[in-house]
Design brief:
431 residues, 2 domains, 14 strands, Rossmann fold
Length: 431
């Protein structure tokens, strides 16, 4: 197949959506497909364009055999709601440099668009309709719903308008997928997609990310002792997770010199967490940057307990991708999740972690205390077994490739929904 991928994030980003889209593109190329990508300069999770890409405009590079077309964009130092909107639209406008020639000069067998941001789907929709090419929209999270629940966007009319734009885009996609059963339910409840929403979960290379002995961990490199009890949070540091709870919980363990909190990551919330730790005078909280992918098994082996924290309001709207690597490494995760959500159900059903109430310092403190006093071997064995059975990179991407081929074979049918249906006005009520 000739495949076009459109995503604001792509390799070499180490975490978040870009990591998975980059691995997907490389895997499809390895299987013999022609893959082209339109994406931005890498900037996540630091919210700063990576050093070797700074000052560059539009250019093309080859990554793992994939042709990657890079676009400049605005990257704010502090990602407020308004600045995020400008940031995302700057990418869409910038990417017209590559999109406009494609409308007239090149045909693909399928277009894959990855969201968030949700409105990146607008250009692929136009291309799909103009060239009669099937469009697959993959939702890594439900961005507008998250913004609404976190109260990041307060203007109701503007929110209604965004939901109507989302409807306009999603109903014109021949295939829509997302990463968890809970998000499938949320997407299906919108009643706007052409067919049933597919499950396309994030994955892990279980041959690379595997349990390692403590002697192969990064404890010595990071100045930690074998006797230390290490509580690790690794990944992007953003507002959705409620990470200030880690600093508050660390304060409760400040008298225990063996308990160390290790935060490895980057993101818009990192400075806030560092300031909090300084204000509390904490010496048991250590901050480090994200480790390269080659060191991922070693950093995961450093921890006794892994933290997977989410706010109540985004339950089933996002699924923390860091959990996948933790499970594959045979780690025990302390997971904040609301009963009845997909995340809570999976952890409880397979007994591969300790569940606590979200947004509660007391729950986090007692969860850590329980984990430190417990035998975690059963959780760790169950975690690794689940990763091997359900999260294998080859299995998940193999099924995705099969579904893509089926989508290509069905693409001879005309596009079902015409473009002529007008976009909604911000005052238009939701159906």
């Amino acid at each position: 197949m000739k495949i076009l991928i459109y995503d604001i994030n792509y390799a070499p980003e180490l975490t978040g959506v870009g990591k998975y889209t980059g691995e997907m593109g490389a895997w499809l190329k390895q299987k013999g497909h022609t893959v082209q990508v339109i994406t931005a300069m890498p900037y996540y999770p630091e919210w700063d364009v990576h050093e070797r890409y700074k000052g560059r405009m539009w250019f093309t590079e080859i990554i793992d055999g994939v042709t990657v077309n890079r676009c400049p964009l605005y990257v704010p130092e502090k990602a407020t709601a308004l600045k995020r909107i400008v940031h995302e639209f700057s990418f869409i406008l910038s990417s017209l440099y590559y999109w406009l020639p494609l409308f007239f000069t090149k045909q693909y067998d399928v277009v894959i668009c990855v969201a968030p941001p949700f409105h990146v789907g607008f250009l692929p929709v136009l291309y799909s309709l103009f060239r009669n090419v099937p469009l697959w929209m993959h939702l890594q999270d439900l961005q507008i719903d998250v913004a609404k629940e976190l109260d990041m966007l307060k203007n109701k009319k503007f929110l209604y308008f965004l939901f109507r734009i989302e409807k306009f885009i999603l109903k014109r996609c021949m295939s829509v997928s997302t990463i968890s059963e809970g998000m499938i339910r949320k997407t299906a409840d919108k009643k706007i997609i052409q067919s049933s929403c597919k499950l396309f979960p994030n994955w892990v290379d279980e041959q690379h990310v595997k349990p390692l002995p403590r002697t192969q961990s990064l404890r010595a490199e990071l100045g930690l002792y074998d006797t230390d009890k290490v509580i690790l949070y690794s990944g992007s540091l953003g507002e959705k997770q409620g990470l200030e709870l880690i600093i508050k919980a660390a304060k409760s363990f400040s008298d225990n010199k063996q308990v160390k909190f290790l935060i490895c990551g980057s993101g818009s919330y990192k400075l806030h967490l560092e300031i909090m730790a300084q204000q509390y005078g904490l010496t048991n909280v250590l901050f480090h940057s994200l480790q390269p992918y080659e060191k991922l098994p070693a950093i995961l082996a450093t921890a006794d307990i892994h933290l997977v924290l989410q706010k109540k309001s985004v339950s089933d709207l996002v699924l923390p991708s860091k959990l996948i690597s933790i499970l594959s490494a045979g780690g025990c995760a302390l997971v904040s999740a609301v009963p009845g959500t997909n995340l809570h159900d999976i952890i409880h059903r397979h007994q591969m972690g300790i569940l606590i109430d979200p947004e509660s310092v007391d729950a986090l403190y007692h969860g850590i205390k329980l984990a430190l006093e417990s035998d975690l071997s059963t959780y760790k064995l169950n975690a690794r077994r689940y990763a091997e059975l359900h999260l294998s990179k080859e299995v998940i991407l193999g099924k995705f490739e099969h579904d893509l081929l089926q989508l290509q074979n069905s693409s001879s049918k005309p596009v079902r929904f015409p473009l002529a249906e007008s976009l909604p006005h911000a005052n238009t009520p939701l159906a």
